[in-house]
Amino acid sequence: MTIPKHDVREVFDRAIEHTRRLSPATFDQWFGGVQFDDLTDGVLSLRVQNEFVLEWVRDNFLPTLTEKIRELTGWSVQVAWTLDPALVTPIAQRSEVAPVRPRPIALRPVPTPVPASGPPSPRLEVVRRPPPPDEMNPKHTFANFVVGPSNQLAHAAAIAAAGGGGRRYNPLFICGGTGLGKTHLVHAIAHRVYEERPEARIIYVSAERFTNDFITAIQHHRMDDFRTKYRQSCDLLLVDDIQFLAGREQTQEEFFHTFNALHALDRQIVVTSDKYPQNLERMEERLVSRFSWGLVADIQVPELETRVAIVRNKAAQEGIVLSDDVALYLGQMIRSNVRELEGTLIRLAAKSSLTGRPVDLAFARAEITATSPPRAQTISVEDIQRAVCHHFHLRSTDLTSKDRHKSVAFARHVAMYLCKQRLKCSFPEIGRAFGNRDHTTVMSAVRKIEAQRDSDPQVRAHLEALEKKLAADE
Ligand code: ADP
Ligand code: MG
Asked: Where in the cell is it found (predicted)?
């Protein structure tokens, strides 16, 4: 098939956009060193900055790129390379800090799905699908999910919920601590269903977003639209972090009816939560009981082997060269949260690429020792409360009391802030430790102190004195 020049460029642009979407974190680093020259009769001419970029792009991106071109044109693509250190119009703009020998780094996976731009050219017979649901991280797929004893059940149930065989439970309730892969699994379900049944109407929302949608619908008298969207025009409803509905009675009521409507039609519902249904606070009993109708699958903290496998997997995805001893070391050191594990790996890789040091054991050790507060685990909420009371000359019961006197409230906010900063406690946890206060109260207290810390030198002085005191106590 011969394709006019301007269409050829469109084919290439679409294929490149597809490639970018699959590797948003590393794309710019590499394609900043590549330039498009031509695509004629199945020969793609690319200009590259150096051999290093050539090899990397050829091995890591080319299969995706050429496959997409083949899909659009029917050509089995050959690539002709030209080496040229001075590219005029590289495909991507590298960020300012791009190292000479770029190592792909991602500081955070970015949700990117962007529908291809422009109308499809009729001659190319491009199949247009609806864009995938919003806010999905393209990397959160089943293929990228490492299965181990800690998450086996949730993983199998998620595959079944996506229609992949095995008994399907409705609803599927996935619960577990933060950073253990709940959102990843839910996105994976959506990706799978989207791939296999592109016509399926998938809704992925956080409970927070559901709440906001609901409030907006009430405000603008658009409840009919809201209900059509969630109750009728939905084949698969994925609701993340349902614990957010705590205490939101009206939203719970609406969600209850949404749930019933979908369940009656046997539409799959998947809910995630940081707690088991029965431990959800301020949640209507009838909702809690419905959450247990299908399967409650929990995710536990992964075992060492799984943690190491996750690190290796992530490194491979991001193109980070990692030796076995470093993977093992990271798995041993960071135990309770996969997000933190990944974050440390990415930080190591970023530092390594900026300083030119390889990610070896000595480097990993130095980095982890430098960034983890020494023996932070030995300090407790009580220690913080005690230090704060002492500092502000309060009684030990003041912080947990209902006393709203300004100075007591300020000290309480400072103590909450320190618990969040130093111990990484969750907001509800902190609330419980401070006389059973609501997590939203804690959240706003922490935010307030954060803002004052940045704007008010007196507050900063209090915080510094307390930090010093706590460090000395450790
Ligand atoms: P949660 O929603 O439970 O707080 P996430 O799903 O956001 O956690 O996971 C945090 C990070 O850890 C994500 O980047 C995710 O891809 C990764 N992750 C968690 N569990 C796994 C796993 N078993 N395999 C691969 N990556 C994982
Ligand atoms: Mg999550």
From this structure: Cytoplasm
The domain covering 381-473 belongs, at the CATH homologous superfamily level, to: DnaA protein, C-terminal DNA-binding domain (1.10.1750.10)
Dist. CA 185–CA 155, nearest whole Å:
7
* Gap between the Cα atoms of 92 and 155, Å rounded: 36
Dihedral angle computed from the Cα positions of residues 22, 27, 31 and 32, in that order, rounded to the nearest 10 degrees: 160
Tell the residue number behind the tokens 């399907």, with chain if given.
168
Q: Beta strand pairing status for 172-176 and 268-273?
A: parallel
Confirm or reject: Cβ of 385 under 6 Å from ligand 1. no
> Which ligand number lies closest to the CA of residue 137?
1
Looking at domain 5-93, its CATH architecture is 2-Layer Sandwich (3.30)
pLDDT in tens, 15-41: 999 988 887 777 887 898 899 998 988
How many angstroms does the Cα of residue 436 sit away from the middle of ligand 1? 30
For residue 230, pLDDT beyond 60: yes
Q: Where exactly are the structural domains of the chain? A: 5-93, 142-299, 304-371, 381-473
State how far the Cα of 177 lies from the Cα of 200, in Å rounded to an integer.
30
Pairwise CA distance, residues 207 & 216, whole Å: 14
Residue 131 near residue 116, CB atoms below 8 Å: no
Q: Which two three-digit tokens encode residue 466? A: 């307390």
Measured in Å, residue 181 CA sits from the centre of ligand 2 at 7
**365-423 per-position pLDDT tens digit:** 988 888 765 544 567 888 899 999 999 999 888 999 888 899 899 999 999 999 998 88
